[in-house]
Amino acid sequence: xxxxxxxxxxxxxxxxxxxxxxxxxxxxxxxxxxxxxxxxxxxxxxxxxxxxxxxxxxxxxxxxxxxxxxxxxxxxxxxxxxxxxxxxxxxxxxxxxxxxxxxxxxxxxxxxxxxxxxxxxxxxxxxxxxxxxxxxxxxxxxxxxxxxxxxxxxxxxxxxxxxxxxxxxxxxxxxxxxxxxxxxxxxxxxxxxxxxxxxxxxxxxxxxxxxxxxxxxxxxxxxxxxxxxxxxxxxxxxxxxxxxxxxxxxxxxxxxxxxxxxxxxxxxxxxxxxxxxxxxxxxxxxxxxxxxxxxxxxxxxxxxxxxxxxxxxxxxxxxxxxxxxxxxxxxxxxxxxxxxxxxxxxxxxxxxxxxxxxxxxxxxxxxxxxxxxxxxxxxxxxxxxxxxxxxxxxxxxxxxxxxxxxxxxxxxxxxxxxxxxxxxxxxxxxxxxxxxxxxxxxxxxxxxxxxxxxxxxxxxxxxxxxxxxxxxxxxxxxxxxxxxxxxxxxxxxxxxxxxxxxxxxxxxxxxxxxxxxxxxxxxxxxxxxxxxxxxxxxxxxxxxxxxxxxxxxxxxxxxxxxxxxxxxxxx
Length: 571
What we know:
5-stranded antiparallel sheet; 16 strands; 18 helices; Beta-lactamase
């Protein structure tokens, strides 16, 4: 630039001056210099005018075109598609709103602007707004997102330079807390952070034409599970609870975890409320795992329904003692061991096939791997460090292997649905992958396990889950929660009470799991806090309400069913 200035300005002047000294014709030289000076003067005036206009354009008109348009584009939100339940009911949608932003370089009086805005936006202080406007180098800052039309009108009436609005979209969850753990939530820009919302974003990046996401959920069933679970938590003074209703092909119709949170107001939610017990709660499941134990014994051929196992005395393993709660203190058949929920007999059954067979079947059932689901908040199971005889026996009655409720429900469903492994899903139209059809147990084993689970509801610890007109089959389980290095002292132990079952028995269509977190004994339960006294009756309340929806016109004879399952019980 310096060389160009010397060449174009000073050099002609020096040349002109030299000619003037050496020439006699001073008049022509003066005219030459005058013309060049006029030309440079005009150029300077034009440059000054351009600069002055640009300064006025930015400071007074607020049109920093290049930068502000770029900033606006960067912050522009896109309307996110709706999420529906399986019947087309709206669960989540995006509503058009207005968001207020500022161009600090266009704000004339920062103090006045901040003061007047704070009077309208009563929850934002003047100092807070000043901090946003103080940097004149910024060309786009948010003042407030998703404001109401009335508030927008008030700000427009003030007429402040540099304060503008843009069209925005706010994610709204129609049923508030009801589907919070399944749908998840988004950030202020509508980007999914958890649940189906996060999964939806991934789908949208792969398919630009995705207009909506139809889930497998059902508003009616979700509401029933939520209401009955809340009632049970209140009645038994539990710390929380969870429930899942699923079809036997893996479609999740309802999934509730309590406590829950409001995705419309995520700032007011604690991490405890946002914890999904169904997919993140990894714990030992207790006697419900005996379903898997008998399935392994029957399918592997190491035992039959009438095989006899010694349950007359507790089993001592090192410093631990395997014993029964109100045991029969005699030999039990496999059927009796299951219906009476004998820990001793379950350990004997597991000894018959051993740790290697047990581990191989658990792998087939999906108990050793993380359960795949459309939501990303799913946990890995906790496996025994050494899977030997001791672990084998403890796992047989529900300890030593910790999994999530969804993982357990998927495994049991794979056993009782005819023996075909299922993968749970939250998407209505997602079909099974027939190319990966995996058989986990035989159809014969599947039918016998259902009969045994039906016997539990008719004669065992699941009697309080029985309802008229529908063949409910199931199993209860009460496990102690780990506290520190153990399970806590007697009398202070915390429990997880679970009922897992399905219906109808001969042609199963639906599976259900209900768990209560540390339910307390009450007078109605005669001082007991086991699953048969709280989780089972909670299941009954739910089943009484959902079966009319799911089993239209179905009413089998309960008396005939009782006679059929009685053959498994030795009187």
